[in-house]
Amino acid sequence: MKKRVKLHGFIIFIAILSIILLPGIFLRNSRIDFVDEILTTLGIALVLLGQIFRLSSRGFKSELSRNGFALVERGPYAFVRNPMYLGILLIGLGLVLMLFKWWAICIFLIFFSLIYIRLILQEEKKLLRVFPGIYQEYRGKVPAIIPSFKTLARAEISNYLPLKFSWLKREIGSIFGVLTFAILVKSWEIIRGGGYLFCLQRLTKLLLMVILAAGLAAYLIKKTNARAKSI
Q: In a 3-state reduction of DSSP, which class is residue 151?
């Protein structure tokens, strides 16, 4: 676990250092247009959704897995087998869409595949040893990281994304850090392309999206608490 954290931290450090030292290569040009606005809006939406996925899956697993002695198949784990990694994928894609040139998507997906697919395969070998019959059946029903269209079509979001305020409180630092980094870099891009007034207008839209995401989180917390009281 410690090696994994160090590896991820090193990769994030290299990515930030590359942006600081070589902004002209990685970041989009300063021209602000309709396409940039669409990409930025979609990017921030993916970042916020990815954060909710991470919060829900980590908190849900910590309460139900009994330190690895129980296989979790409900909640976000009924959506995909690796919802935390799905959250990281959404956050990464969102940051790329917000800040970087289009070809950076390819680089991100390559790095993501090299790191996380290997981790998924290693974890699945362990789960097959610990829960041989149960996990084999579970793996046959639930996709690894990309949800099926059928699941998306019939999904009731509160069933797949339970959320508690205590889970949110534990992760608030990392959420604030990612959003602050993305907004600061994007603000610099917007100021170069449209000036301070235009930057203020765009930041108002981003703030509105953050408020909507907070509303979604509040809805999920309310539904989770109501479901817990009914049991």
A: helix
Mean pLDDT of the region 65-79: 83
CA atoms of 76 and 146, how far apart (whole Å): 12
| Whether 50 contacts 90, CB under 8 Å | yes
pLDDT at residue 63 tops 50: yes
- Identify whether 80 is part of a domain: yes
- Measured in residues, the chain has a length of 231
Q: Is residue 2 part of a domain?
A: no
3-state secondary structure labels for all residues of 172-203: HHHHHHHHHHHHHHHHHHHHHHHHHHHHHHHH
User: What is the percent of the chain where pLDDT is above 70?
Assistant: 86
d(CA 202, CA 176): 19
**Structural domain contains residue 3:** no
d(C-alpha 24, C-alpha 7), whole Å? 26
Side chain identity, residue 14: I
| Domain range for 74 | 30-230
Q: Domain count for the chain, please give it.
A: 1
Local structure of 27: helix, strand or coil: strand
Tens of pLDDT, residues 78-106: 999 999 999 989 988 998 888 888 888 88
* Neighbour count for residue 43 (Cβ, 10 Å): 22
Residue 213: how many CA atoms within 13 Å on its side-chain side? 21
